[in-house]
Amino acid sequence: MPFRHAKESRKVLPLSEKGLCVKLCGTLKDHQPRLCSTVAPPDEITINYRHGLPLITLTLPSRKERCQFVVKPMLSTVGSFLQDLRDEDKGVKSTAVLTADGSEIPASTLMGILLMNDFKLVINKITYDVRCPKKEKLSCEHTAEMENVKSLVHRLFTALHSEEFQKRRERRLLEKIDQLTGRLQPLEQMKARIEARSEAKTSGLLWAGLALLSAQAGAMAWLTWWVYSWDIMEPVTYFITFANSMVFFAYFIVTRQDYTYSAVKRRQFLHFFHKKSKQQQFDVAQYNQLKEELAKANESLGQVRHSLCLRMREELKEKN
Question: Average of pLDDT values for 173-189?
Answer without folding.
Answer: 88
